[in-house]
Structures are given as structure tokens and as C-alpha cells.
Amino acid sequence: AVAFRAPSWGRVAPIRTRWMSTSSGSFSPKLLERFAAMSQRHQDLCAELNQGNPTTEALMELSELAPVVDQLDVLTSTNKELEDLAEMLADQETEEELREMAEEEAARLGTAREAVQQSLLGMLVSQDKDDKYNVILEVRPGAGGEEAALFALDMFTMYQRFAVSNGWQWEQLTTTAAAHGGLKEASAAIRGLGVFGAIKYESGVHRVQRVPATESAGRVHTSTVTVAVLPEPTEVTVDISESDLKIDVYRASGAGGQHVNTTESAVRITHIPTGIQVAMQDERSQHKNRAKGMRVLQARIYEAERQRVHAERAQARSSLVGSGDRSERIRTYNFAQDRITDHRVSLSMTNMDSMLRGELLEEFRDALAQDERMTRIAELEEF
Q1: d(CA 71, CA 197)
Q2: Are the CB atoms for 336 and 220 separated by under 8 Å?
Q3: Number of other residues whose CB lies within 10 A of the CB of residue 204
Q4: Dihedral-angle region of residue 6 (phi above 0 means left; psi in -120 to 50 means alpha; beta otherwise)
Q5: Rounded distance, CA 142 to CA 148, Å?
Q6: CA–CA separation, 18 vs 121, rounded Å?
Q7: Tens digit of pLDDT for each residue in 189-242?
Q8: Whole-model pTM over 0.85
Q9: How far is CA 9 from CA 12, 18, 19, 96, 213, in A?
């Protein structure tokens, strides 16, 4: 039989435990209460599970709480050692050599305690539950006319290369070519482990500054491309009633030969409650276009709900740290200076060719993920 271990400090008090020592530093009262509640829950689960026949849910909860409890154990012992050292240093009769050793050990333990505290805070910042999902990627030119359309193609290709390099499955859903080259719009489905968590920070307005190939005077043009990264939920996650849909079929437009002009294979799906609309025409089959359109519609509805919840939480915190609204300019690609700058974390990198091959996206992702983590930790400490 497996015995489940309760916290080493024994019965957890409702409000305060050994690791809540005043010497424990920067934890706010709200955080202290959260740790106390987690400790209490861990102890209750240990007692419950030791009685036999543990449920899968209880075992999973215990496994999630165990690392927190272990770190609180370390914090308890570290606080006790620091308290003993403080008493030694406060004693006027402590010998000078021993005092120096105590000061060195106190400094080492202070650093170690700070690391434990940061580890505990990191455990409270849970991973975004949507990070595991596949992705619907949408790329559209913004301001800048022909140059924006050309850069939209560059970016769409960049994301495809990044997906392939990570071993993800890339499925092109729809592409509409612009009249003079580039893309009018394009979308793709990307499948793989943790795809949304890896590229979710790409959503927003990307600005490009470069001299177009058609510019004879060598003037730098500024244009924009909008990128939307939508988590692709399961059908169970987003329940769409057939009665809430308006479906129109029509003849596809654009390149495609005689078939395009004579067959009503294109599909436009409107979700009546939200007004969200999706059009799909790349497939020759109306049925396939509808299936693809429903996937995109589900992703857009899910993302709209994510943004609504995000806005509510931000308003409740009384200050917006950055809404993630897609109208915000998030990154600038300056070709003349061979520099890419992400304005959210003030990170600049060089080598535009590597960037457009998708080779620098991971470094930007890591910096943005760390910034988000630190922001969420600061919110936990403040509120």
C-alpha cells in the first residue's frame, strides 16, 4: 500500500504556518492565504487517500499540490536556519570568526530562499489551458496596398517554415491572391503538440519598413500585416447549434478555370448570435468548403470568448497591462537596418533572412512568455 505524506510541519493552521514567518519576505497576505489553503488541501487529500480506494481525480490533484508542498517544506527549513543565524548574530558574545561564518551562511540562505519563493510563485502561474490546442492561423494585408500584400505572403511562408521545422502538420485552408502579387488573405491549420502556446504571441499588427521592388526612387514604404492565431478547440469545447447558423452557397471567384464559374461550391457561414462570418471557396466540393469553414468559425467564436473573459479580468484588476488587441502594433521589420523589433518586450534582433525562414520566432516567443509570466506573478503579489 502507498502512504501519502502530509506536510512536514504537521497540521496546517487555517491562516498561518511556519513558512509564513515574517522573515519570509515579499509574499502578500493574499498569497500567504492561498499557500495555506493549498497546504490544507494537500493534508486533507493525504488523509483521505490513505483510507484506501483513491479516485483518479484525487490522485491528479495530489500530484499537482505535491511540488508546492515540497517547496514549502524547503522554505520552512530555510526560515528556521535563518532565524537561528539571526539569534547568533544578535548575541554580543558570539566570537568574531563565528560571526563572519554566520553572515556568509545567512547571505547564502537568503539567496536560496528567494529562489524558493520565485519557484512557488511560478507554480501559482498556471499554464494557459489553451496552449495544448492546434491553431487556425489567419494572415491579411493591412495598410500599404501592394507592398502589404507582398509582405503578407512573406509572413505566411515564414509561419509555414516554422511549423515544418517543428515537425507540425501544416494544412492550407484558403489563400486568395492579390491582383499584383502577394496575398489578399490566407489561412492555415497547424497541428502538433503545444502549437498554440508556441505561436500565440504572433497575433497582432506587424509593421514592415522596406523599399518595394517597384520603387524606382529608393524610398522606404511602411505597410502592415495583421496576424490572427486562434486556438482550434474541439467540437465538444464549442457547441454551435445548427439553428444559429445561416449558410449561403455561391459560385467561387478567382483562378480555377471553368469549374469555378459554373459550380456553387463556395460557402459562407454566418453565426447569427455573434455575427461572426466565414467564407471558404478553395475546395471544389461544397461539402469540404463547409467542413473547413466550420473549423474556422469554431476557432473564431472560441477566440472571441477568450478575449471577452480576458477583458473582464483586466477590468477587474483595475489596470490593463496590455489587452492583446490586434489593433496594437506588436513588431516592426526594418529591412534597411536588418532589424526586427518586438515592441511588447523591447527586444531587437538582426538577420532578416533568418527571421523570414522562421528561425528567430522561438527566441521572440521565449522572451514574450517570460514577460507574461513575470507580469502574472506581479499581479498575484499585488492582488
Answers
A1: 26
A2: yes
A3: 22
A4: beta
A5: 6
A6: 18
A7: 999 988 999 999 999 999 999 988 777 777 888 999 999 998 887 654 677 888
A8: no
A9: 7, 7, 9, 34, 70
